Amino acid sequence: MEKVWELYEKGDWVVPFLIFSIYLFIGASFLLYVVIIWSRNKNISREKRRIEYSAAIEELMVAVVFEDMTFATIQKERSLDLFLNNAFFREVVMETILNLHKNYDGVYAQKLEQLYKDSGLINDSFKKLRNFRWEVKCKGITELAEFNINDAFENIIIFSKARKKTLKIVAINACIKLAGTKGIVHLTEHPDPIDDWTQLNIIGAFKKHDIGDTKGVELLLGSKNTTVITLGLKLIKELKLTQKVPYVAELVDRAPNSLIKYEAQNVLQTLTTV
Amino acid sequence: MDFLNNELMWFVDMYIVLILGYAILIMSSYLILAYLSTKELRSYLKKNSFVDYDVLLTSEFAPKLSLIAPAYNEGFTIEENVKSLLSLNYNNYQVIVVNDGSKDNSMEILIKTYDLVLTELDFHPQIETKKLKGIYTSRNAAFKKLIVADKENGGKADALNVGLNIAQNPYVVCIDVDCILDKDSLLKLAKPFLESHGKRIIATGGVVRIANQCIIKNGRLVEVNIPDGMIPRIQVLEYLRAFLLGRMAWGRLDGLLLISGAFGAFDKEIALLAGGYSTKTVGEDMELVVRMRRYMLENKLPYSVSYIPDPLCWTEAPEEFKIFKKQRSRWMRGTIETLSFHKNMFMNPKYKLLGMLSVPYWTLFEFLAPGIEFIGLLITVVFIILGLLNWHFFFLLLLFVYTFAVFFSVLALFSEERTFHKYPKQADFFKLLLAAFIEPLYFHPMAVYAALVGYKEKIKGTHGWGEMTRKGFTKKQ
User: Fold this and answer.
1) pTM for the full model?
2) Which residue of B has its CA nearest to A198?
3) pLDDT for the residue numbered A7
4) How many domains does chain B have?
5) Least enclosed by CB within 10 Å: which of A62, A227, B150, B313?
């Protein structure tokens, strides 16, 4: 330290500083170059493995979905244990069945749900909920909701009160998918404003998952949080819930402010004319 | 004599300290911005992987947008460009093409292709513009989103102001008509307007990338390539650095001064209250952002400017030095004009981060940097003539700056690699890497020269854009 100070005092620091910086920049550039190459190679090898695994996964899917084989039988016959212990293989399986499940319904979807449970992938999803990283939690929530794991509802609804907005939206969407309006009624007590993007996602979830039973949506109109009331009005308007007209009319009479009153009148007009 | 020598040596020492100090300051600022950008990018990408943009597509509550595309002598490509604007993934939007007194057959092509007829549109212009010759809409229901305004020539800012006057929706998206937009660009640009937390989002900017030699099919980008020419190729690298390692950080700090004129969305009400685009500058895009921010700050209204790092807009970069020089000198004039219009913001605490950081940064590192470099070069030549130059030190300083420039470009490539990965071909990566080594010796002097031309033009009082000839994109058959 003393030497450095002496150099500074004498003004002799400039040349050593420049030389040090030049070496530093060259070293850092080289390091970045190596990391880029390594990253590219890693991606290539991952892609190769993905293609390799896809063949095995395809066979597994065909056997489970179309040949009515149970996962236990396949596991015995095709010695899948080695594969299933591999985290990347499990990741690819998860992605595949998740995508398939989005495109199938009825018996095929049920078979995929059974596979999700039997293969233990469900435990991976629950484990993700306990991860400290919010994005991993989001992944877990998405998976559990996609496979209609109703038992996860209580675990997921906790995250719908999270401070991280993305996690909150993902959790509310999952709750709506799993339990319809039960997934949002707790918002009546929500203390913070719900922004337009979150509201749009909630409405989108109702439409996407075709939630028929909308009992309880009217409760949102009774919230002290004006953004929750707005959400309720938007839901009623967008889903054309004419059966909620009396509640909207009631809101017009006791609206907490003129903006809500105007919005309620607007919804009322939309639903009563046509 | 000794006294004179001592004086000279003192001057030389001072010069070295100043040059080195400036270089260290600029490099440190770049590194800090790169660090902030990386953090912001990571956070954005994590969040974005769980975003379902379809909710915007299917909802009547999605923000209503008006796209404003000024066109001047674009007859060669206007038909296809407008078609691609009409087929974007979004529902609540209209397209306003403003024909800025084109001398070619742009208007005839538009009328014929889109079956346009003169219409009486009910609107109350809030900004004074050049005379409007007529407003056209289509008889064909398939083009009901399209409005074409035909006006006398008045420049890009004037054409955009006509668009602002006509726009029927609360948000306007200003674009260059010859840009290639990503199909989902409007979905991504609209989202921030819904996310305000007690702050009004007054503008959203998107990343612009270079499309030279990329393959375009039906107005959409289908294959990303690296240009063969060194000038556009280096600009690919330059844009990566600017957008991935610079503007993202300013977005995080909420100190963005510039939203590219090629692609940006604005809150129409605030844009109009701020007075619309200024026709007195060629940097109308930057000037409007500064004026809108200033309006919000002076009226003590909470606001924010958002920034989207996804590559949503692809544009053609100049391939020849002549065109490049015109573009960059214009950019410099725009910067000087904007900074001089708003000079009272400089180091003015009333304008918070904008006055204390953004404006001083632009003044010191964007406006003054080429001038400082040029003066440095002149003094070095004088030192050589007087035999005062310490060659050992000179080469070390040169190497110091050169290695940093290469390092920073490699950092930009690294950032691109770990985020959007738009250049997956190995050959393309090596082309860009090579460009990183060549740039400081070949491209940078050209950029500095073009900026100096900008200074000169400003002093001479040159106005206007100058002709910008483009080669056009490679089309896939």
Assistant:
1) 0.92
2) B195
3) 61
4) 1
5) A62
